[in-house]
Specification:
Elements: E1 46-47, E2 64-65, E3 69-74, E4 79-84, E5 88-90, H1 98-108, H2 112-118, E6 124-127, E7 138-145, H3 153-162, E8 166-174, E9 180-190, E10 193-203, E11 208-216, H4 219-232
Antiparallel strand pairs: 1-2, 3-4, 5-6, 6-7, 7-11, 8-9, 9-10, 10-11
Helix pairs in contact: 1-2
Length: 233
């Protein structure tokens, strides 16, 4: 299988201060149906209990997620993130699930080895592997250290321009936990096709932030997933 569309990897940009970020914005052309292996139960407008280690995960019962989303622990960061309940989600905690890894690799048109290796920089990957779309929606999470509490609008504009993408709608806000946060969107194209990209950055202290990137063809889906993510962090 060959990718029909691809947004290049967003490589580190020393000029903008994003030296710790290497964002994989690869667009997939293949998908296979499956139930989400990381979604223990449908999530309603209620508190969700998540299986997690006692000393790593925050209080899941204190976090509410919208219907259709599930909280997933990211072991490396000790945080919980809302992802769509019907997507397949991979973290370091379930890499032994060969079927799960295979579905995600096929959907992203990567090898299983590449999918697992990517967890070193982006330790959460969630993909709509059941989608019939040519390019399924997906998200991933990373963390930037030493580049400030949040990315600035100037950083993101330079990042977009460096990769022939357009950026817009940069907005500073707060996350569900009350942390400083920022959201932004980008649009990239190749071979006449466009994909929308949404970023949710949430401060993790004075000089670090979490970044969740969502990629989708649907503006509505992009907004819904981004809203659930920022509310969960």
């Amino acid at each position: 299988m060959t990718r029909s569309t691809r947004i290049p990897r967003l490589v580190p940009l020393a000029a903008t201060g994003l030296t710790a970020i290497a964002l994989t914005l690869s667009l997939a052309a293949c998908s296979s149906g499956s139930d989400s292996a990381d979604s223990a139960s449908p999530a309603g407008d209620q508190a969700v209990t998540v299986e997690s280690s006692a000393d790593a995960a925050p209080d899941a019962d204190a976090t509410a997620v919208p219907e259709g989303f599930t909280l997933v622990e990211v072991p490396e960061y000790g945080v919980l993130v809302a992802v769509p309940s019907d997507w397949d989600t991979l973290t370091s905690a379930n890499t032994s699930d060969e079927e799960l890894v295979g579905r995600i690799a096929q959907a992203l048109d990567d090898s299983e080895e590449e999918v697992i290796a990517d967890l070193e920089d982006t330790p959460l990957t969630s993909v709509d592997t059941a989608s019939d779309a040519e390019d399924p929606a997906y998200l991933y999470m990373t963390r930037s250290d030493g580049n400030g509490a949040l990315p600035t609008e100037e950083m993101l504009r330079a990042l977009a321009e460096n990769h022939d993408a357009t950026s817009s709608n940069y907005e500073q806000t707060t996350s569900g936990s009350g942390a400083d946060a920022a959201t932004f969107t980008m649009t990239g194209s190749e071979d006449g096709r466009q994909r929308r990209v949404s970023g949710v950055a949430v401060s993790d202290g004075d000089d670090a932030f979490f970044l969740v990137v969502v990629v989708s063809d649907s503006e509505q889906q992009l907004q819904e997933v981004s809203d659930a993510v920022i509310d969960s962090l």
